[in-house]
Amino acid sequence: MGITFEEAWAEVEAALAESTAPIDTLDIDAFGSPFGDAGVRRLLERQPRLAPRQLTLANAKLTPAGLAALLTSDVPSRLELLDLRGSLLGAPGARLLAESMRLSSLRQLNLGRNHLHAHGAIALAAARSLSSLNRLELEYNFIGYNGARALAES
Questions:
Q1: Model-level pTM?
Q2: Short-list 121, 59, 70, CA closest to 95
Q3: What separation in angstroms does the CA of 126 have from each of 12, 24, 72, 88, 95?
Q4: Which residues pair with 81 in a beta bridge?
Q5: Is 28 helix (H, G, I), strand (E, B) or coil?
Q6: Which of 10, 11, 37, 43 is spaced 20 to 30 Å from 17 by Cα?
């Protein structure tokens, strides 16, 4: 039997509260926990100046609404690595990432298992704001030939 979301969240908040130094890396793997949009909003409310260089919210089941909250916060200002694998972003989430002008320092992006399909890959390929990427992970998204071709040509 694992711990509850509230217990896990209390541990995260305690660790963040104890830190006096800037948080450079925040790595949360929410496998088996309903972190989702509510967890992201709670994180942003409790840590309003959070601006890590590396952020992992793996298996968080984030939707485009939660991603939008993240992208309009201070978090993207220094991000070099963003790992959102195992979420529910789909093509709408890919479009949000592609349209965000706040990800200019992003070097690595992991969107594995996000139901992106070809439309999401095509949106990412057209993103001028993601031109600094040197690593893009899209495993298990079924982007197909058209998505792969758009990415290869971008």
A1: 0.88
A2: 121
A3: 36, 29, 21, 21, 9
A4: 54, 108
A5: strand
A6: 37
